[in-house]
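Design job #97: recover the sequence.
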């Protein structure tokens, strides 16, 4: 009975979402490289990945909204000036193109 109630479409959506964000977490967890400059861009990248899309199912929309709220509650307040300075000093982020223009 439990197996019959599994929503395969939703499971596929969850799998695709987690595949899309795996690189972000792996880049932040590298041991031999400083990642201070990646914190701000990674936050914005994850928020972009967690944005709802037109084709998302209702459960996936709810899941993504909860993920975005969690990201704001957990991480936004812990991104400090040092992270922004490190991002600005990294040549690849100098123009802060990763920040939404809105």
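Job complete. Output follows.
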């Amino acid at each position: 009975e439990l197996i019959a109630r599994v929503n395969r479409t939703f499971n596929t959506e969850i799998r695709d979402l987690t595949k899309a964000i795996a690189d972000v977490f792996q880049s932040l967890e590298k041991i031999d490289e400083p990642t201070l400059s990646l914190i701000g861009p990674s936050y914005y990248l994850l928020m972009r990945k967690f944005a709802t899309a037109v084709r998302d199912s209702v459960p996936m929309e709810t899941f993504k909204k909860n993920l975005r709220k969690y990201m704001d509650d957990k991480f936004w307040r812990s991104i400090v000036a040092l992270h922004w300075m490190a991002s600005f000093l990294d040549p690849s982020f100098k123009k802060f193109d990763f920040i939404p223009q809105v």
